[in-house]
Amino acid sequence: MKIAILGSAHPLRGGLAAFNERLAEELQHMGHEVTIYSFSLQYPSFLFPGKTQYTDEPAPAGIKIRTIVNSINPLNWFKVAAEMRKAKLDLIIVKYWLPFMGPAFGTILRRAKTKTTKVLCIVDNIIPHEKRPGDKEFTNYFVKAVDAFITMSKDVLKDVHTFTTKPARFSPHPIYDSYGASVSKEEACQKLKLDSSKKYLLFFGFIRKYKGLDLL
After folding, report:
1. Which one of 12, 102, 169, 194 is CB 3.0 to 4.6 Å from 189, fit for a cystine?
2. Straight-line distance from the first to the last Cα atom of the chain, in angstroms, rounded to the nearest whole number
3. CA 161 from chain center: how many Å?
4. Mind listing the pLDDT tens digit for each residue in 64-89?
5. Secondary structure E strands in 53-209
6. Mean pLDDT score of the chain
7. Is residue 99 a contact partner of residue 135, using CB atoms and an 8 Å limit?
8. DSSP H helical ranges for 30-134
C-alpha cells in the first residue's frame, strides 16, 4: 500500500517522533511505501513546555520525511492536503495527542482523502490532561475526518467512544526496540557512575503538574 503517516518526525524530538519513525520502518519492512508528513512548525513557542523541540541526532536512515506541516497556517493545510491527495494514498495514519492539532489535521485529512483512502488514527489522548478552551470542538472536527481508531490504553478507548461510534480498538503501547540491547542494572550503574546498591526511579518526558512528580 501507499501509506502516509501524519505527525511528528525528525528533526523533532520526543516519543511521538520516535513512535512514528519506528512505525514507518516496520511498515516499510512489510513491503509498503511510506512517507511521514511532519511539521515545519509543530507548536508556537508559547505552547511548548520544554527548552527545544528539536534534536541534534542524525535523521533516521531509509525513512522518507516531508517536513512540511504548519500547525497554525490554514493556507499551508490546503497545500499539504493537495500534495497528499496527489499521491493517491491507500491509507493515512495520524497520531492524535492534543486538541490543538484538531483544526490542522481535520482540514488536511478532509482534503487529502480520495474515495479509496482510509484514515486510521492512533490516539494517545483524545481528552487532554490540561484543558483549554475549544478542546471539545477541535476534537469533534478532527474525529469526523477519521474512519477508525486505535488506542493504546483502555481508558482512552472509553474516551474515544464518548466522541464517536466509529470502529475503535485497544492495542497496548509496544515496547520500543530502537534504543539498543538492554543491560543489567550493575552495568548501567557502572556506565552512569551510580551506586548499584541503591534503588532508582527513572522519569522520562516533560515535567508537568498532572504527572504527579510532586507526590512521588
Report:
1. 194
2. 46
3. 20
4. 999 999 999 999 999 999 999 999 99
5. 64-70, 91-96, 118-123, 148-151, 168-170
6. 92
7. yes
8. 74-86, 102-112
Provide the CA 63 distance to its chain's centre, in angstroms.
16
Phi, psi (5° rounding) for residue 176?
A: -65, 140
For residues 85 and 112, what is the distance between their CA atoms, to the nearest angstrom?
Answer: 4
C-alpha to C-alpha distances, 109 to 53, 112, 136, 182, nearest whole angstrom: 24, 5, 18, 39
Q: Kindly report the pTM of this predicted structure.
A: 0.88
- Contact indicator for 151, 169 with CB cutoff of 8 Å: yes
C-alpha cell at 38: 511532519
- Do residues 92 and 118 make contact, with C-beta atoms less than 8 angstroms apart? yes
Weakest mean pLDDT among 81-85, 127-131, 168-172: 127-131
Q: Summarize the confidence of residues 162-188 as an average pLDDT.
A: 92
Using DSSP, state whether 66 is helix, strand or coil.
strand
Range picked from 38-42, 44-48, 49-53, 200-204 for highest mean pLDDT: 38-42
The DSSP bridge partners found for residue 95 are 122
